Fold this protein.
Amino acid sequence: MRSSQTAALLGQELAQKLKGTRVLVVGSGGIGCELLKNIVLAGFGEITLLDLDTIDLSNLNRQFLFRKKDVKQSKALVAAKTASAFNPSVKITPICANIKDSTFDAQWFAGFNIVMSALDNLDARRHINRMCLAAGIPLIESGTEGYFGQVQPIIQDRTECYECVPKPIQQRTYPVCTIRSTPSQPIHSIVWAKSYLLPQLFGEEENEAELDKAENDGENPNEIAILREEAQAWKQMRAALRSPNATAAKTVFEKAFRSDTQKLLGMDDMWQNRQRPVPLDFDKVAAGTFVLRGQEQVRPTTDMNGSSSNNHASGLRDQRSLTLPESLDLFVSSVERLSARLQRGEEIITFDKDDDDTLDFVTAASNLRSSVYNIPQKNRWDVKEMAGNIIPAIATTNAIIAGLIVLQALQILRGAYDSLVWPYLTAKQNKPITGSQLPPSNLACAACSDTYTVVRCDPSKVTLGELVEKVLEHTTSGEDGEGALEPSEVAVYEAGRLLADPDFESNLEKSLLDLGCERGKFISLVDEDERWNTLTIALCALPENEKSSQLLLSSSRPRLKPKFKVEPPTVVSMDVDRPALKRKYDPEETIVLDDEDGPVRKKVKPNGGPSSSPSKAQRLEEDGLVLLEDEETIVID
Amino acid sequence: MRNATVLVIRLRGVATEAIKNIVLAGIGKLIVLDDALVQPDDLAAGFFFRDEDVDAKRRVDAAKPHIQSLNPLVKVEVGHDLSILTNEEALNTLLKDVDLVCVTDLDQAAAIRVNNSARSQGKKFYCAGAFGLSGYVFCDLLEHQHVAAPKNPSKDGSKSRMEQYKTSYAPLSKALLHSWRDTTSAATKVLRPITVFSILACWEYQTQHSHAPSSPDALPELESLANRLLKKAQVRQKVCTSIPAEALSNLAQTAALEWSPSCAVLGGMLGQDILKALAAREPPMANFFFFDGQTCNGTVVRMAMEPAPNQGAPPGAIGNLPSSLNATAEPAVVEID
C-alpha cells in the first residue's frame, strides 16, 4: 500500500532503490525520533538505529516516540518498536551502544548505503564524519538550536566534510542526570539554577494530573509515591514563597542544598568514581563558620577604608567572585525580592538576564550548587552571559530539520549531486527555509583531504611495520600511478601520537595491539617530503572464519593525491590577535580565502547559529562552554 | 496556549504532523473533524493510522487514541460531520467555542468559507496543504498582538520592558488577489515566484476538479492556470515572465500525493506557527508560506498586508543577523539580494 504510493510519487526506479537502501541513523533523541518516523514512512528498506541513552521524563514533550511507561528503557529499542508500527514492512534494528565503540569500525559503516547523524555532540560527530570518509559513504549531518537548524549532506570529494571548517562555537549537551545529580562544570550549575530551581519555585505550577493518570494506569506505585512526595515538597515551598514568610528562603536553601544533597549521597553507586557532594548548613554558612572541604568559609571583612563592596560601581561588583556567605546572602535577598513580587500579584516569574532579581537568584543558586559539588564559582557577569545563552530546545525545529534531512537523502539516492543543497532555517521572515549551495571541500582539511583505506586484520598478529609495508605496496600515487611512497619516507601516527618515523623505527616491530592500535582506530601515514597527501588506514576486524594472521586489504587500490599546500591569506588582518576565520556568524556573510593556486573561494557559511562576536565566542569558549544544545537538557517551555 | 482550543479539519499528512507538534507542546483542547475512512494512501504520512484501519475505521476514530497518548493532559475530541463546510450556521456554532481553526488539504473555496466564518467570530485561522513534495501554509490572525523585547534595548541597561506589537492580517480571499506590482524585482526574486504560482495553480486546480492534479494529462491545464495567476498578480516581468512546463510536470503527476518528509516540514512550520499565534510572545509568520521540496526552499510572501514596520537596523549591522535568542519581533524587511 505504502510502496505503491511511493512509486507513484518518486517513480518506480527510485522507489525500488529506496526499498533496497540500508540506512544508519545515529541518535534517537529530538531529531532522531522525528527522523526515524520519516524514514520508516518514506519507504526505506532497512534501518539501523543507534543510541546509547535511556529515556528520561524530560524527553517526553519532544521525543514523541516515547511514553511515560518507557522511562528508563533504551531509547533505540523503544523508538524502533513504536516506529515500526507506522510501517511494518520496514526492518528496524535498534542498537543500544556508543557509536565510538570499536565494534563499529569502518567496515561496519561500509555496510550501509547512507548514514544520518542526529547527534548532539561535536566529538561523536567528528568520529562519524571520519568513519564515513573511511567507508566512502554519504553522510547527512544536522543540528538545531532554538528556532535555527541546518542539514548538511557530506560526500567525500564533492562537498565539505564536517571538519572542513573549524567550528568556532563549541557546542555541548548535557544529559539530564548530569544537571540533576552529577554536575561537574559551572554551566551545569547555571542550567540547574535557571532551568530547574527557578521555574520550580517561581514558574508555572506543576500539574499533578499526570501522576494521577499514571497511578490509574497501574504504574509502579512505589515510584509514583516518591514522585508525589517530591511534588508535595515543592508545592509546600511554593506556597511558603507566596505568603508572608520570614523563613521561606532558609527552607528553600535547606531543601535545595542540604536535604536533596543528602538524599543523593545515599546512592553509593553514583559516587564510586566521583567526588562526593557536600551538603550546606544554612546557619553555619550564614555565620561564617561552615567548613567546606577543610576550608573555613568566613565572611569577608570590610576593607581598610571601612567601605563595603556595596559602594563599588555595579560593573566591578559584577566581576567579583562571591564568598560562600555572600552567595547565601544574595540567595536570601533574591528569594525575598522574588517572593515579594509574587505576593504583589506576579503569577509567574521567568528568567530574564536583564531582570536583576532573577539574575541574582541564578548567580547565587548556581554558585551555592557549585560549592556543593566542588565546581569553580562564576561571577555575576559571567553568569549573565552564560545563562543568557542557554537555548531551550524547540520540538518543531527538530521536526522540520528531520524532514529536510530525508529530502536531501532522496537527492543523494537519485545520484543528483548537483541538486544537493544545504538547507538551513533562518530568522528571515520572508525566507525561513533556505537551500543554499554546498561549498566544495576544503582541500587542506585535516579529515577529508586524506586518502582513506580499510584494512582488516587481527591487531595482535600484525606488526606496525608489516602494516605500513603492505599498505604502501598496495597504494598508488598521482594520476599515472607512478611515484610510490616508501615506508622509509613516512611518519606514522595514531590520532595525535607519533608511532614511527624515519629516525625512530623501533615501534615497527611491535604488534598493533601492543601499540594501542586496535579495531576502530585510524593510522595515518604522513609523507615527510610533503609530496603526497596523508594516507589514513581504518583498522577493522577480520571477517569470521578468516585466518587470524591475515591482513586483508581493500579491493580497490588507494590512490594518493599531490599534497595541497595552503598559502596564507593575502588579506591583511589588522588585528593580529584575532584568527581570520573567527568572526561574526552571519548566514549571509562570505569569507574570501585568497589562494594563489586555487580559485578565490567565496563561501557562505550558514551555520544557523545565533550571531556572537568572535571575542565573545572566544571568551565563552575559554570558560568551557558557550551554547547549550538541545537534547538531554532540562527544557524550558 | 495551555487553555486554547484548536479545531483541525481534515486529517491527512500535514494535519497529522501539526497535531503531533501542538499536542506535545500542550494545548487545552483539540477537536479533529474528518468524515472519511482511512484510505490506503493515508498510510504514507499518517502515522496515527495502522494497516488494519484502512477502509475499516474513520480517520479520526483510528487516530484518536494515538493522539491522546502523546499528551494525556490535552483533551481530544473527534467528529465525523463535515457538513459544516457547507452549512454556515453550523460552522459558526462550532467556531464559537474554538480559539483557532486550522483546515488542511481543503479546496480554496472551502478554505475561504471557513476563514470568513472564523473572521466573523474573531477566531484565528490557518490553512495548509501538501502537493507532492511541496506545499503551503497560510494564516489569518486578524488583528494580532504579540509581546516581545524591543529591538533596540535602552542604552542605560535598565530593565527592558516588553513591547507590544500589532499586526493586521488579511483574509484568504484578499490574499489570493494580492498584486506584486509594488514588490521590487530583487524582493520578488527572493520570494521564488515560480514555486509560489506552481503551488497556487495546484490549489486552483484542486478547487475546480475537487482533487489535485494526478497525471501528466493535467499538465497543460496546470500550466495555463499557473500563467494566468502569474499574469493577474502582475509579477515583475523582469524576474519571471512565465512558468515553464518543466517546472510543473512533476507536480502535475504527484500533487494529489503526499510524502512524510515534506509533511514533516509543512506540519512543523504549521505547528510552530500555531503555537506562536496562541502564545502571543513571538511574531508568527505573515502570511503565506510556500515550500518547494525539491530544492528545500521555503519563502513567506506577505500578501494583501501592510508592509512590515521598518524599525531600522542598529548601526553597524551586517546584513540580516539572526534575531537574539529571546526572540524579538523581526521586521519583515524587504531585502535586496
User: Anything to note?
Assistant: The first strand of chain A starts at residue 22 and ends at 26. The two ends of chain A are 39 Å apart (CA to CA).
